[in-house]
Design brief:
mainly alpha, globular, about 210 residues
């Protein structure tokens, strides 16, 4: 279950670096649902939560505009994998007490500082990076195919998925695999559809009619 939680949180980080960090920090600070314990309890610090909230607002705005979203994605190439490593590492050193029980407690605080943490951290970095790169490569295709109108729609959908997947990873981790599979299929279908749309736009002349193929 810990690995499923880590997978869900890291996947969420690939879409939005700050949502899973805020979810973990807020639940740890204000509810008994999450107990991050030593090593990751800094996420629930008030200053950290405030900074993450500000960064999230900036991310939400920047990702809604064509061209700006690509610049933001370039910057996030470092941030999102880092977030993925943190959340996967946190989940891997914790235990979820039963399906939907909503209890995340540290089972081995000493493991947080040991080598056992680095494998899940690196795994989280890789998972988040793969999701981030997929998102980053899909967005320019979508913007070209739709003249930029897809940017706010896709961005809003990604934010919703990131939030939902973060909560799912904590409360019902057994469903994470299905959610990740659905996300992969969704990316594949959207990218294929937008690629076809981009090709049609590139072949179109000024009047909107398809230019003759050479």
């Amino acid at each position: 279950m810990e690995l499923l939680s880590g997978l869900g949180l890291a996947t969420s980080s690939g879409l939005n670096a700050y949502i899973p960090l805020l979810v973990l920090g807020l639940l740890d600070r204000f509810t008994p649902v999450v107990d991050l314990g030593p090593g990751f309890d800094w996420l629930s610090n008030g200053w950290i939560l405030g900074i993450l909230a500000v960064l999230l607002v900036i991310e939400l705005l920047a990702d809604k505009f064509p061209a700006v979203d690509s610049i933001n994605d370039a910057i996030q190439t470092v941030v999102r994998p880092t977030s993925g490593g943190i959340v996967f590492g946190s989940a891997a050193t914790s235990e979820i007490a039963g399906l939907g029980a909503g209890t995340l407690t540290v089972t081995d605080p000493e493991a947080v500082a040991g080598w056992q943490t680095w494998v899940p951290v690196i795994t989280g970095i890789v998972v988040a990076l793969v999701v981030h790169l997929t998102k980053s490569l899909t967005r320019p295709v979508a913007n070209t195919a739709t003249a930029g109108t897809a940017a706010p729609v896709l961005s809003t959908g990604e934010d919703i998925v990131a939030a939902g997947l973060s909560l799912l990873a904590i409360f019902i981790p057994i469903l994470v695999v299905l959610a990740v599979i659905a996300l992969v299929i969704g990316f594949f279908v959207l990218r294929r559809r937008f690629r076809r749309g981009r090709e049609r736009r590139l072949r179109s002349g000024p009047g909107g009619t398809a230019a003759p193929e050479i």
